[in-house]
Input
Amino acid sequence: MAAEIAAAAGLRVAVFDHMPTPARKLLLAGRGGLNLTHSEPLDRFLPRYGAAEPLFRRLLAGFPPDDLRGWAAGLGIETFVGSSGRIFPVQMKASTLVRAWLRRLDGLGVTLHSRHRWTGWDDAGALDFRHGEESVTVAPRATLLALGGASWPRTGSDGGWVPLLEGLGVEVAPLAPSNMGFEVPWSDHLRDRFAGQPVKSVGLSAVDRSGAVRRLKGEFVITGTGIEGGAVYALSAPLRDAIAAEGWATLTLDLLPDMPDAELVRRLRHRSAESLSTFLKKSLSLTGPRAALLREFAPAADLSDPVTLARRIKRLAVVLTGVRPIERAISSAGGVRLSELDERLMLARRPGLFLAGEMLDWEAPTGGYLLQGCFAMGTAAGRGMVEWLGREENNSSPAPGEGMEPTAAGRTNADRRS
Ligand SMILES: Cc1cc2nc3c(=O)[nH]c(=O)nc-3n(C[C@H](O)[C@H](O)[C@H](O)COP(=O)(O)OP(=O)(O)OC[C@H]3O[C@@H](n4cnc5c(N)ncnc54)[C@H](O)[C@@H]3O)c2cc1C
Output
């Protein structure tokens, strides 16, 4: 996004990526349909960014969801609003969008240098890259780092930039998994019978650090090691923080979220001589994985009394004992502290160095909020770079882009840097 904006403004732009091809995580996201953004109004959208809401209020004012849809349409990618309000490309994949986008960037003169791993700065402040066996140095007038977090490192985002920025004195919150699964010590019976099965239409709640209860309705999947899936991801931040502090966390399930407590107790009181399984199935449609979860976590003594059984069905405590690794998380929490940046997303302590995307310290649930946030950041950083370079131009002479040709090791044209 930043490259497109800067190039459209007449600047010479080069993009460097250490992978053989670009946008691998975007392409991976495309396998799940590529949820680009969400159609809900901004007063519901913005709180999804939690503590970073003030930043995203400003960023989304500059690049709102409708602009993202318009931008995609400009690339020939029509989008639609799904039944959940999420917005996807009609084709439900990323490859067509990425191809069209690369063509547009090429047309704008943006050069793409793959297999270039950024490794820091040389003594003169130029960017150092490793390109195969070669060292390459580049001295641009402004730089945007958009190196991602540390989830799915095989897509390229491996968090290797953390010590490089810390070396500048930049404060970086530790990278942690976000939108990930959790470990649950299942019984052999539950794991053997139900691993891989979805648990549908349940209520989920967790208590966050401020003591507030966060609730939602949705579904998740039982896995061999615990639980995964959209509804769990949406509560992943408070659950992760509780595990970090206590070593465990409680996820509370409502197995019959549409039935009020009093109605449930009334029905349970009318149970005749039939077995509990038969009754749960016939009268409450509580079968399969939901019934198995009740058996797994409700003490046997609570199953015979209507009031205690109703309490377990409506508020079943599932203890989570661990967090699934960041390598398999949808996104990362942590990163460069937002307080390090000015309103253009430029590092206050290093003028001309801009940052965007998941490498910054924010997180959001799945639902299109991550990509919308990254696109809006790229847009803001691109505009910020154009504006900053425009001001710099008044104070210096080299042409925009001067010093950007990669030079082999030892031939850094530090004297050409502006
Ligand atoms: C399985 C999966 C599904 C997802 N689905 C969705 C979805 O549907 N909707 C949604 O909103 N979000 C989704 N996301 C999240 C979304 O893809 C990310 O939030 C987004 O891609 C982050 O963008 P970014 O530019 O910050 O980082 P990235 O997309 O990770 O890009 C970082 C780039 O930096 C490069 N790089 C890193 N280090 C270096 C270095 N030292 N030198 C040179 N290059 C380097 C990497 O190769 C990479 O190309 C999904 C994520 C995953 C893993």
